Amino acid sequence: MNTSYTGIGMTSQRTRMRMVERLRQQGIKDEIVLSVMGEVPRHLFVEEALAGRAYDDVSLPIGFGQTISNPLTVARMTELARASAAQGELNKVLEIGTGCGYQCAVLAKVAKVVHSVERLVQLTAQARKNLRNARVTNARLRHGDGHAGMPTEAPFDVILLTAAATHVPNALREQLAAGGRMILPMAKGIRGDEQYLLVIDRTTRGFIEKRMDAVKFVPLLPGTG
């Protein structure tokens, strides 16, 4: 794994800035999110053989049937997370589905602390290594079932899922702080092949849901492995 922040060729800062400009053209307006996307070295979170594609607008395999989301999806979900907080300042975030750790690293740049749950023990170990290589120090990873969340650390300002759910787990609703926001891919249709981002805001009147962009994620599975 290349642990360079600058790198050469396709992992260079210039390549990263081209990605940022593309994200801006694709509708990402939050300049803090755009800055963070330019800072986080995405090539550290993929296999070395795929580093040359790290800043393309594509999802990439990370093993175990999982993928790293494309940069636009990561930026969009982070923008939605920041938009929920006063002045865009997030205190405590819960991520369900650590994967390779890339979304976690981006969230860690805009929140005081990120707690992240991954169901696959091998990916948990890989994410820890990736985050260490990327010098992320405010992420707390745990191997466990994401449906249960992390009740010992609740409530959370934001809960973000990186796998498509067929329903909203009640445990996660309960762990959302008043005024907090949950962002998740929701799968519909007979085969769950219709997916969209669902934003759920917890207000004094209850939960308000809003359907957003079409997306494509791996399914949210129960249990651990």
Explained architecture:
- The chain is of the alpha/beta class and 225 residues long.
- It has six helices and nine strands; from the N terminus they run H-H-E-E-H-E-H-E-H-E-E-H-E-E-E.
- The strands form two sheets. It has a seven-stranded mixed β-sheet with strand order 5-4-3-6-7-8-9. It has a two-stranded antiparallel sheet with strand order 1-2.
- Helix 6 (170-174) links the parallel strand 6 and strand 7 (176-188).
- Helix 1 packs antiparallel against helix 2.
- It is globular.
- Residues 1-9 have low confidence and may be disordered.
SSE map:
Elements: H1 13-25, H2 31-39, E1 60-63, E2 66-68, H3 71-83, E3 90-96, H4 102-108, E4 111-118, H5 121-133, E5 139-143, E6 156-161, H6 170-174, E7 176-188, E8 194-203, E9 206-214
Parallel strand pairs: 3-4, 3-6, 4-5, 6-7
Antiparallel strand pairs: 1-2, 7-8, 8-9
Supply Rg: 16 Å
How many strands appear in the DSSP assignment?
9
* SS-derived structural category: alpha/beta
Helix content: 25-40%
Give the N-to-C terminal Cα separation.
24 Å
Helices and strands, in order, run as HHEEHEHEHEEHEEE
